[in-house]
Amino acid sequence: MVKLGRITNGLAIAMMALALFSCKKAEQSSTTGWNYNDPEWGGFEVAPFEEQETGPGLVFIEGGTFVMGRTEQDVMYEWNNVPRRVTVSSFYIDETEVRNLDYLEYLYWMQRIYGTDYPEYVKKAQPDEMVWRTPLGFNEPMVENYLRHPAYREYPVVGVTWQQANDYCAWRTDRVNERILIDMGVLEVDPDQTNENNFNTEAYLAGQYEGLVREDLTDLNPSGAGTRKVRMEDGILLPKYRLPTEAEWEYASLGLIGNTIYERVIERRIYPWNGHITRTDDKNAYGDFMANFKRCRGDYMGVAGNLNDAAQYTAPVLAYWPNDYGLYNMAGNVAEWVQDIYRPLTVNDASDLNPFRGNVYKTKETDSDGFIAEKDSLGRIKYRDVTVEETANRRNYRKANNNNYLDGDYASLIDISDWNAVPGDSVATTVQMYEYGKTSMIDDRVRVIKGGSWKDQAYWMSPGNRRFMDQNTPTDWIGFRCAMTRVGSSFSGK
Fold this sequence. Notes:
Helix content: 10-25%
CATH class of the largest domain: Alpha Beta
Structural class: alpha+beta
Number of helices: 9
Number of strands: 18
Largest sheet: 4 strands, antiparallel
Oligomer: single chain
Strand order of the largest sheet: 1-4-18-7
Low-confidence stretches: none
């Protein structure tokens, strides 16, 4: 795992290289012959860049093809995850599940920035600590202690909804990028940020965040102001932290990188390790469990003096062995939210390259002059769905909301007479397809859950299995980890 120091050191070297450009022969465009980074030739800048740095907490996952889907008997008889071959692009994912300590840092920041004027947003971020309660079980100590007591700081946060997990990812993006600009010397540390004046990556790139500026970059444009903000073209700021897609999570969990010879998969894994057993094949650890799960009814951690997974509830996020990608607890401990909207037949409809259901295409709001609209009261850039008029001449997509594409839109209805009943109403089409609350629990708020938990038996630890839950439902057995898109090469360090 690469720490933030490596990022800032690499950026410092890159900016020094740009500053020393005048001492070297000018680099020229291969298509026009004009000099790059030369004010006398117009000042078009080409920043030094080798590859994307690894953000704090992340592990690089080299992509590739794999057989996505169930690897054992479909005991639920749902037929919602038929094996099929897909390809996943390289990406990054957290080494561990997000900890209580990480989420408490987020809550502290929310209180400090918004607590005075927007307490409702602080309350909105709070996990549901009552999820531990059960009518016929004594779990009140977990209600009182789990999130906040230091004994549990290294344990995975639970009680968070899908939306709360997404909000955490967005917050983490901004804190990491702000730290990068501070370490570069572009910004000063500003502990007095409040409300809309907090650092937001998109607002900064749009020129709507000033902050405590130490020293902006030199602008080589001869008609410019002499200095400028960091731009996307500089390759300095990292892409967004986000939830992984279902395909990314499953691919990372299987860890096939340690189970192949050239392009031949040695064994199709049921769990994130070789073999069908739930115990390690390391001779020095025979009998030790590989994950935190419920062995059978009433057995959450084994017998005193010889505990199996040694955790009646959750366990620390670095407990047990990592898989071949170096990822911890991709089988048990807590199940995890992923991005995808659940549909039983997505396996038949989704793309074979980075399959995903949940695209709602948006664009930044603009003012009457065509400039990006003023940021909102929380300091964020405002977005809206793309319109039908904006997509009229496109061939790759025709509408903003594609949650129901091929599985709930009017083109999917069996009764053709209903096609024009409520044109363009995605909610109505989903109701017609699934009759939410009557014949199914599926609608556009239902998200996929991957992996097993401390509360599950071994069946759910297989990465190929999938479940679903309403995105606004917190539980004591679902957590999450963040991911990040890899830009550029599929290789790391090459």
